[in-house]
Write a structure and sequence with these properties.
Alpha-Beta Plaits; 4-stranded antiparallel beta sheet
Length: about 100
């Protein structure tokens, strides 16, 4: 599920969920996404004001294919940690009515 051109999906882990208490949210973003584009699309998709965007390119994890000594090539991906303006939040688990 792709949310927009730059934002692919939120990353929901125990660690990233703990960040939400401090107004920080973690997203998987496109490799070509810039900090400015991420900030603008957060405003469009979620309607929140972003104060800070930190990005990091995560190395892929290589995996073995079968019982041989061959390894698959890892795929890199980009992660963005977004800090919101004080008092704002994103509902990562919306309730269906």
């Amino acid at each position: 599920m792709r949310l927009s051109k730059s934002i692919i999906e939120p990353i929901v882990t125990e660690k990233s969920y703990d960040h939400s208490a401090y107004g920080r949210y973690v997203f998987k973003v496109a490799m070509s996404a810039t900090k400015g584009a991420i900030k603008d699309e957060m405003k469009d998709v979620y309607g929140v004001d972003v104060t800070e965007v930190k990005t990091v390119i995560m190395p892929g994890k290589s995996s073995r294919i079968g019982k041989t000594r061959e390894f698959s090539t890892p795929r890199r991906w980009k992660k963005a940690v977004v800090r919101l303006k004080e008092g704002q939040s994103i509902d990562l688990f919306p309730k269906d009515k």
